[in-house]
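Ticket #4471: structure export looks truncated?
Reporter: QA, pipeline team
Priority: medium

Steps to reproduce: submit the single chain below to the structure queue and open the exported record.
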Amino acid sequence: MECRADFSQWFDLPWQDKAIGLENFDSIKLIDCGSFGINVTIFNSWLVIALITLVSWLVTRRISTGKNVSKMQIVLETLVTWMQNEAKETSGSGNRKYFSMALGLFCFIVTANLLTFIPWFRPPTASLSTTMALALIVFMAIPYFSIKNAGIKGYLKKFIEPVPLLLPMNIFSEVFSVFAMGLRLFGNMLSGVMFAGILSAFIPFIAPLTMQTLGLLTGSIQAYIFALLALVYTSSVKKEEELSIT
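Actual output as written to the record:
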């Protein structure tokens, strides 16, 4: 099977008219191997993951517990401590079982938004396939943590509360509320990309920097909301002793 790579499209994206439209960037393949290919969204997602991995390795390889602590370690320790406190307050649990997932989702979304300062980088969170994949992670985490906390019986019990008649509605609410997270994130990120692209066509120098700065703030808020909702949904079913404490 012959494979063909063409990264010129990746660099040309900001200058193409379709960059400000509703073009599906999932269809633009940078590496094409017949039925298999790597599109812009997947490639940019890999860049985000690679950057997070690199930064984590650079910081943790010389981690210090003494007085000589690097500024980057202080920043990351602040981020970790903040997310641990959020997980504790939101879940009402003193343990950290929800922390890793929430921090991972937050870091991925925030990093993707940080990289929008690169003109030809289109954030993967502006693609519905990426945001729905993130929502799917939360959707799978809900029964995992719920069964781990209260067992299968405790997890299924919530679908017939307060009355069994609400079973269909509770099932629908479970599915829709989680995937609404993905739709919300996609809508906010895509609208930011489109709006910045439209303004750039009229004000080519000032608008991009202003919109990217505003987009960074909005993207950080969206990352926080997504991670917070993930904590709320995954910690919705707890043990009886945890409920009595909270």
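Status: closed, not a bug. The export was complete when the record was re-opened. Leaving a note from the reviewer for reference: The CA atoms of residues 146 and 237 lie 5 Å apart.
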